[in-house]
Amino acid sequence: MLPHPTLDKLQTLRLHGMLKALNEQLKTPDIDSLSFEERLGLLVDRELTERDDKRLSSRLRQARLKHNACLEDIDYRSPRGLDKALILQLSGGQWLRDGLNLIIGGPTGVGKTWLACALAHQACR
């Protein structure tokens, strides 16, 4: 049983991020130096972050991507012929919103699947 009635209500409302943040605030001795608005802001920010993280995790799990790749890890210096401007344009996701398909071509072992996973990971975000 939760010792604080507010914690119980947050649990009932499924506000798990706020629940964790309030627990942390209750254990922090100098939290009283913050105003009510600042403390409430911290609680709301934590809840929003928790929900965003949960949503991203769910999307990535459903996508079942082969590689944990992200566009920030692309090395444009290697001689694979990647156009940075094109990758940045694709990362915006407008082609997805327009319902277009993307075909990635190239010889074996150059990272076509990895690039597709990186674009999919970006789309999940």
Automatic annotation (TrEMBL):
<dbReference type="InterPro" id="IPR002611">
    <property type="entry name" value="IstB_ATP-bd"/>
</dbReference>
<dbReference type="Pfam" id="PF01695">
    <property type="entry name" value="IstB_IS21"/>
</dbReference>
<dbReference type="InterPro" id="IPR027417">
    <property type="entry name" value="P-loop_NTPase"/>
</dbReference>
<dbReference type="GO" id="GO:0005524">
    <property type="term" value="F:ATP binding"/>
</dbReference>
<feature type="domain" description="IstB-like ATP-binding">
    <location>
        <begin position="9"/>
        <end position="125"/>
    </location>
</feature>
<protein>
    <submittedName>
        <fullName>AAA family ATPase</fullName>
    </submittedName>
</protein>
